[in-house]
Amino acid sequence: MANGNHIIEQFEAFAPKKFALEGDPIGLQIGTLNKDVKRVLVTLDVLESVVDEAIEKKVDLIIAHHPPIFSKLANVTDRSATGRIVTKCIKHDIAVYAAHTNLDVTPGGVNDWMADALGLESCEVLAPTFENTQYKLSVFVPTEAVERVSTALAQAGAGKEGDYSDCQFHVDGTGQFRPLTEATPYIGEAGRLERVSEVRIETIVTELNQKQVIRAMKQAHPYEEVAYDLIRQERPATSLGLGRIGRLPEAMTLREFAEHVRNAFGVQNLRFVGDESRHIQKVAVLGGDGNKYVSTAAFAGADVLVTGDLYFHVAHDAMALGLAVVDPGHHVESVMKEGVVNELKRRFEQKKIDVELLISTANTNPFQFL
Is the keyword Transit peptide assigned to this protein (predicted)? Predict the structure, then answer.
């Protein structure tokens, strides 16, 4: 059992809200997180059948990829599917939390799970949406507290450079200050000028972890007022975004690749655009509706784009660009169910959070095939 806020805190450490595209209705949509949670159900969609499953399994929290509430509701009654979903969840004290485009963008999220399912190698971001800017953090620490503050910085994620962690630079010096009468100084007395041996610790933080690093630094630092600088770095930032583009270990024909996609995602049928005999090796993949990214994939040099909900005229555009497209449907994003559960299990084990994680078995794919 754990507090719902602590559970979502762990989830958002993996898929931060700031990754979401503007206007995306993510986050807590129904109920409260300020409660004890024993069971969490992970689902692609929140349909009424999923809520019934959650009620039957005595679930306290649903984590979904697709938000059940995309626009403002005029009312909440049993006359609409959304109204019944909201009513049932509130009646049975089931909170619903949605992670949509932030789960698409985050490293190790939906698009990486899809790329892994296809066996793609050397993957890069297809459509950048977020730059993880780097900053140099400098903090002045009394000598006796250096080890404590240094460790806190590293444990919070500061100082990661490529394949190295705990990267810091320490410089000895002398700090000077005069506590005013209202101060309660760790060293010295109010009104008297003090000079103490200090160490300047320099390290690198990013847009993503700077808040948690600074919070950890302040908690570990003995001073009442911590002196530190945060300076934006001009070197290129890591780009995060929608979709991935990578390569197959070996080329195959478009028809063979379409069969590969069908098997990888376990779908009954799919559609594809292009000459079935052309050879495919460089592959772009984008979960959900990827119609807006056909030209992006083509200009990135992809032989084929794997995405869902392909429009008729966009298929013509792809043909004109010389880009093959394989459409296995929107529902293949259901790879997120197992992916999220595995990620949270790992994090919960590290934090000793005792919560049962369940994968929804309700079928939310609206399509059937003859």
Answer: no
Q: List pLDDT tens digits, range 92-146.
A: 999 999 999 999 999 999 999 999 999 999 999 999 999 889 999 999 999 999 9
Which pair of tokens denotes residue 106?
Answer: 């985050």
pLDDT (tens digit per residue) in 150-166: 999 999 999 998 889 99
Cα angle 161-165-170, degrees, rounded to a multiple of 5: 90
SS (H, E, C) the chain: CEEHHHHHHHHHHHCCHHHCCCCCCCEEEECCCCCEECEEEEECCCCHHHHHHHHHCCCCEEEECCCCCCCCCCCCCCCCHHHHHHHHHHHCCCEEEECCHHHHHCCCCHHHHHHHHCCCEEEEEEEEEEEECEEEEEEEEEHHHHHHHHHHHHHCCCCCECCECCCEEEEEEEEEECCCCCCCCCCCCCCCCEEEEEEEEEEEEECCCHHHHHHHHHHHCCCCCCCEEEEECCCCCEEEEEEEEEEEEEEEEHHHHHHHHHHHHCCCCCEEECCCCCEEEEEEEEEEECHHHHHHHHHCCCCEEEEECCCHHHHHHHHHHCCEEEECCHHHHHHHHHHHHHHHHHHHHHHCCCCEEEECCCCCCCCCCC
Of 309, 311, 283, 308, give the one whose Cα is nearest residue 297. Answer: 283
Tokens 């919960």, located at residue: 348
Residue 195 CB coordination number (10 Å): 11
Nearest to 105 by CA among 23, 25, 18, 43: 18
